[in-house]
Amino acid sequence: MISVAVSQENSKYALVIHGGAGNIAKESINEQQREEYLNKLANALKVGEDILGAGGSSLDAVEAVVKMLEDSPLFNAGKGAVFNIEGKNELDASIMCGNTHNAGAVTGLTTIKNPISAARAVMENSPHVFLSGKGAETFAYENGLEMVDPGYFFDQRRWDQYRQHIRNNVNRRRGYMDENLKMGTVGAVALDMEGNIAAATSTGGMTGKRYGRIGDSPIIGAGNYASNLSCGVSATGHGEFFIRNMVAYDIAARMHYAGQSLQDAAREVISVNLVEQEANGGIIAIDKDGNIVMEFNTTAMFRGYVNSEGKRGAWIFED
Question: What is the pTM of this model?
Answer without folding.
Answer: 0.93
